[in-house]
Design brief:
The chain is α/β, with parallel strands linked by helices. The protein contains 15 helices and 14 strands. The strands form 5 sheets. It has a 4-stranded parallel sheet with strand order 4-3-9-10, sandwiched between helices. Helix 11 packs antiparallel against helix 12 and helix 12 packs antiparallel against helix 13. The protein is elongated and about 85 Å long. The two termini are 49 Å apart. The structure holds zinc ion. Zinc ion binds next to helix 7.
């Protein structure tokens, strides 16, 4: 049984599945008009970890995540650069996938694009107009939120209090300030699509409704995204689905914010300006480790310091991989738990992880157990208990792989001879043959390696 925080009910509860053994989930994707930022990295990593873990546990996960390829920002960028909207969208969608590949986020099962669904959206909007749930103003078609009795469910506030707090806008043609645009009439020079109620383009909140229902069907299990999407985006998606008489997502979960330190984000402080900028400077696995260290609902601080700290933890894991010559897992492939034998020490570790990860995806507790197992594996090897050491180390590698984090036995060692020297030196040290160990160290240094001793054995790196 999978339990996850539910944003509607405000508590952790069972993810009740429409089809036993299958999890259908929809994750709101990016608008492709700029480089991905750190917040994009976090939500994709959080939900990638969830997807991987549930897959590892034996569920089939249908993971749909969209690309918003038409909106004001894309139009403005195209105008500024003297290019077209499709060109801007294509370029930044490529940047997006490049970044996702680097941080090891597996491709969604399906990736719908807003522009592929315009006719479905036109049909939905026409039905709203027909039922007087939508209404026309001079600049577009709006959705009347008062037609949805429990509007405000995701915001956690009733309609009256939302209305009282709403910003009064210049557009006095709207029936209520909370009403939102579902269609924007074409302005000269802007891309537009034909519609019986006036040519134009869809508002942002409508695309996810038609795409999720088309690809996952009614009553799909889980709708997720960053906390910033909870209101109004998700509220408005839900309102439209309900107004259309469709059974929408049964469970909503949201991940926390990304903080960039006390100071405002700025290049002069050495903070990362975008996800791509960060990935160019760091081990791409570091962001995943940082995300795993915090609970997905908590805010995380992403600064050069916290990332460097994550890199040090990665070095400890890679040292384990080298000491026991562990295989590198993860990458785009999903690791599946039933492919392994879980008994003894490995089985206990797996069970411990399942307890905390199945219960609201508690990755910090899982990580604590995994790092304890790293220490235990090294300690067992130090006292000569190779069997326990190897069993634990192997389980650690597979279980990190289940969360999408691959250990690297040869991080940047592409020198087979050096690896042999490291192994020989570790053996010499284990046999307390210090003279030989020193000789091997000198030999490695001659080959241009910096040699360090650690609890896990000899570490080498380029200066
Ligand atoms: Zn959405």
């Amino acid at each position: 049984m999978i339990r996850l925080f539910d944003s509607v009910h405000g508590d952790v509860r069972e993810l009740e599945l429409r089809d036993p053994g299958r999890i259908s989930m929809y994750v709101c994707g990016p608008t492709v008009y700029d480089l991905p930022h750190l917040g994009h990295g976090r939500y994709t990593l959080v939900w990638d970890v969830a997807r991987r873990w549930y897959t590892f546990r034996g569920y089939v996960v249908d993971y749909v995540s969209n690309i918003t390829d038409i909106d004001d920002n894309i139009i403005n960028r195209a105008l500024k650069e003297g290019t077209t909207e499709p060109e801007v969208a294509r370029r930044f969608e490529q940047e997006w996938w490049d970044a996702m590949d680097l941080i090891g986020v597996a491709r969604p099962s399906r990736v719908p694009r807003a522009t592929e669904y315009v006719s479905d959206m036109v049909e939905l909007i026409a039905s709203f107009l027909n039922d007087d749930i939508g209404y026309v103003t001079s600049d577009g078609v709006y959705f009347d939120v008062s037609r949805v009795p429990d509007y405000g469910l995701l915001a956690g506030q009733p309609l009256d209090s939302l209305r009282a707090g709403a910003r009064v806008e210049a557009n006095d043609e709207k029936r209520s300030p909370l009403d939102f645009a579902i269609w924007k009439f074409a302005k000269p020079g802007e891309p537009s699509w034909p519609a019986p109620f006036g040519d134009g383009r869809p508002g942002w909140h409508t695309e996810c409704v038609v795409m999720s229902l088309d690809l996952l069907g009614e009553g799909f299990d889980l709708h997720t995204g960053g906390l910033d999407l909870r209101f109004p985006h998700h509220e408005n998606e839900r309102a439209q689905a309900l107004a259309a008489g469709r059974d929408f997502a049964h469970h909503w979960s949201h991940n926390g914010w990304v903080m960039v330190g006390e100071e405002k984000m700025s290049k002069s402080l050495g903070n990362f300006t975008s996800l791509s900028d960060m990935l160019a400077q760091t081990d791409p696995r570091a962001y995943r480790l940082l995300v795993l260290r915090s609970h997905y609902r908590s805010p995380i601080e992403v600064t050069p310091d916290t990332v460097a700290d994550a890199e040090r933890a990665l070095a400890r894991l890679d040292a384990l991989a080298r000491r026991f010559d562990l295989p590198t897992l993860a990458g785009d492939a999903m690791v599946i738990g039933s492919d392994y034998t879980w008994s003894g020490l490995a089985g206990a570790l797996y069970e411990g992880l399942a307890l905390v990860l199945d219960d609201d995806l508690n990755t910090p507790l899982a990580l604590a157990q995994l790092f304890e197992a790293v220490s235990a594996a090294n300690a067992a090897a130090d006292r000569g208990d190779q069997e326990s050491a190897k069993e634990l180390a192997g389980a650690v590698a597979v279980l990190f792989g289940s969360l999408g984090l691959g250990l690297r036995a040869s991080a940047d060692v592409d020198d087979d001879d050096a690896e042999d020297l490291v192994a020989a030196r570790d053996l010499a040290r284990a046999q307390k043959d210090w003279a030989k160990a020193d000789r091997l160290r000198a030999e490695l240094e001659e080959r241009g390696w910096v040699v360090e001793d650690s609890a896990a054995g000899t570490l080498i790196r380029r200066p």
